[in-house]
Amino acid sequence: MINNELIDKLSALAIMPVIQIENADDAVKLVAVLSENGLPAAEITFRSAAAAESIRRIRAAFPDVILCAGTVLTIAQVDEAVAAGADFIISPGFNPTIVNYCIENGIKIIPGINNPSQIEQALELGINVVKFFPAEASGGVNMVKALVGPYSQIKLMPTGGIKPSNVLEYLAIPQVIACGGSWIATTAAIRDHDWDTIAKNAVATCKLVNA
Ligand SMILES: O=C(O)C(=O)C[C@H](O)[C@H](O)COP(=O)(O)O
């Protein structure tokens, strides 16, 4: 269960930068650039070996940044992410073993769904916020609108194929609290220490969603 305080923070943010970071030495600088340019948040995905250490360093440097672990596929990764200081867990799919583990241990989780059956499984377990993944490939905005018809109580965080060109259509749906996306800080830009581009992307994104 994601509490109202976190829902409000995610709604105010509107965009969750999805990060695949290869070197934990880059983590603090990356989040400094994002924060200074309007996006004090990061989803650090467990797609790289540097994820847990990156989360640990970001949490130590920025106690108030919204920090979550993404691509969490195993209970061991849940434990690693929480020990490192992640505020909550995001997974691409709906894995009942992981969701139940998080519920039993009081760990906030936003599991992935892309169809009605998975939403019903989520609701049955008391999950109130889900990730809609992969958003564009699963039907995009039209699919979200169709899903929130019968399941108006669920809140969604669409991710996957979201870009400046389509993000506003998602955010216009009342049940969409925020969108995730990797376009703001790409793995290549982080690797190249292209902080200027990441800063520009963050500023442009904030301008777009707050217009
Ligand atoms: O596996 C997860 O938990 C994820 O977080 C998947 C990512 O959110 C998407 O791969 C980002 O999608 P793009 O913005 O299209 O690059």
TrEMBL record:
EC number: 4.1.2.14
Pathway the protein takes part in: Carbohydrate acid metabolism; 2-dehydro-3-deoxy-D-gluconate degradation; D-glyceraldehyde 3-phosphate and pyruvate from 2-dehydro-3-deoxy-D-gluconate: step 2/2
Domain of life: Bacteria
Protein's UniProt keywords contain Iron: no
EC top class, as a word: lyase
GO molecular function: 2-dehydro-3-deoxy-phosphogluconate aldolase activity
Record's keyword terms, sorted: Carbohydrate metabolism, Lyase, Schiff base
Reactions mediated catalytically: 2-dehydro-3-deoxy-6-phospho-D-gluconate = D-glyceraldehyde 3-phosphate + pyruvate
InterPro entries reported in the protein's UniProt record: Aldlse_KDPG_KHG, Aldolase_TIM, KDPG/KHG_AS_1, KDPG/KHG_AS_2
CDD domains: KDPG_aldolase (cd00452)
Pfam family, one: Aldolase
Quaternary assembly: Homotrimer.
Record-linked PANTHER family: 2-DEHYDRO-3-DEOXY-6-PHOSPHOGALACTONATE ALDOLASE-RELATED, 2-KETO-3-DEOXY-6-PHOSPHOGLUCONATE ALDOLASE
Family under the similarity heading: Belongs to the KHG/KDPG aldolase family.
NCBIfam families from the UniProt entry: eda (TIGR01182), PRK05718.1 (NF004325)
Protein name: 2-dehydro-3-deoxy-phosphogluconate aldolase
Organism: Moritella yayanosii
